[in-house]
Amino acid sequence: MATENKDIDAVTGMATTGHEWDGIQELNTPLPRWWLWIFYACIVWAIGYWIVYPAWPLISSHTKGVLGYSSRAALAQDMAALAARRGEAGRALAEASLEDIRKSPDLLAFAMAQGKAAFGDNCAPCHGLGATGSKGYPNLNDDDWLWGGTLDAIHFTITHGVRSDDPDTRVNTMPAFGKDTILTKDEIGTIADFVLSISGQTPGADLDKGKQLFADNCAVCHGDEGKGNPELGAPNLTDRIWLYGGDRDSIIATITNARAGVMPTWKSRLDEPTIKALTVYVHALGGGK
């Protein structure tokens, strides 16, 4: 129960506020002076910030502030400054073909440096800083390519992406043989055993039946011997390099539900010289053809 009786607390010698709850009185403890000055300074700082920088939203825009600063404009200035610093080498990179870049020691060194930086900023979150990939993200250091490892093929993949919103994106569709009831659970297991056998792993039971099921359902994309087709983005199933796992359970999961990884198109995010530099850098990692 609150009262209006203000007393001096006998223990602390401090005045109370007059509020009491179940016999407990609230002390009228003043805020520290240093805290108050900091609080007042923050208010002054906030008012000054509202005036100097864009801060208040309007119906269709916002207040511009005395300085007229915006992060978008600052980025544009930084990009223009970067292009200026690149100078002649950047212009030469933009005009040269991929083969010419690889054959020119100076252009190659410039492209490798720019490509490494661009890879770290844009590609490493999925492929890793060392480009070794992870489950669902290809290793770019080996010679196993879903869509081809030539300079032109890598350039096209980076430019248009895979299953992206670009009209020219790379795309293929693996049927979900189990989810769409194309094959039974036993038939999927039999195909998985056959795939294990052609990849040099311990096979399962009926390989003759698995070979026939593979020929009827999988060979059209992966080839009669299961060595894949870069034109279709169909992986080689014989080299024991797996994007989603090569154990029996993982293979069954892939056949049952299919896979449909997505890589964004970079042509709207990176300029052509940067895409060329990325192409040369990725090609030079060790797996380019």
From TrEMBL:
Its needed co-factors are:
heme c
Q: Which UniProt keywords apply?
A: Cell inner membrane, Cell membrane, Electron transport, Heme, Hydrogen ion transport, Ion transport, Iron, Membrane, Metal-binding, Oxidoreductase, Repeat, Respiratory chain, Transmembrane, Transmembrane helix, Transport
PANTHER family, alphabetized:
CBB3-TYPE CYTOCHROME C OXIDASE SUBUNIT FIXP
Which ranges carry the Cytochrome c domain? 110-199, 205-286
One cellular component GO annotation, for this chain's record?
Answer: plasma membrane
Q: How is the co-factor bound, per the entry?
A: Binds 2 heme C groups per subunit.
User: Is the keyword NADP in the record?
Assistant: no
Q: How does it assemble?
A: Component of the cbb3-type cytochrome c oxidase at least composed of FixN, FixO, FixQ and FixP.
Biological process terms from the Gene Ontology for this record are: oxidative phosphorylation; proton transmembrane transport
- Does this entry carry the keyword Iron? yes
Q: Which family does it belong to?
A: Belongs to the CcoP / FixP family.
Protein name, per record: Cbb3-type cytochrome c oxidase subunit
The record lists the membrane-crossing segments as 34-52
Positions binding heme c 2 in this chain are M174, C218, C221, H222
| Family annotation (InterPro entries) | CcoP_N (IPR032858), CcoP_N_sf (IPR038414), Cyt_c-like_dom (IPR009056), Cyt_c-like_dom_sf (IPR036909), Cyt_C_IC (IPR008168), Cyt_c_oxidase_cbb3_su3 (IPR004678), Cytochrome_c_Oxidase_Subunit (IPR050597)
User: Could you cite one Gene Ontology molecular function of this protein?
Assistant: iron ion binding
Function, please?
Answer: C-type cytochrome. Part of the cbb3-type cytochrome c oxidase complex. FixP subunit is required for transferring electrons from donor cytochrome c via its heme groups to FixO subunit. From there, electrons are shuttled to the catalytic binuclear center of FixN subunit where oxygen reduction takes place. The complex also functions as a proton pump.
User: Where does this protein chiefly localize?
Assistant: membrane
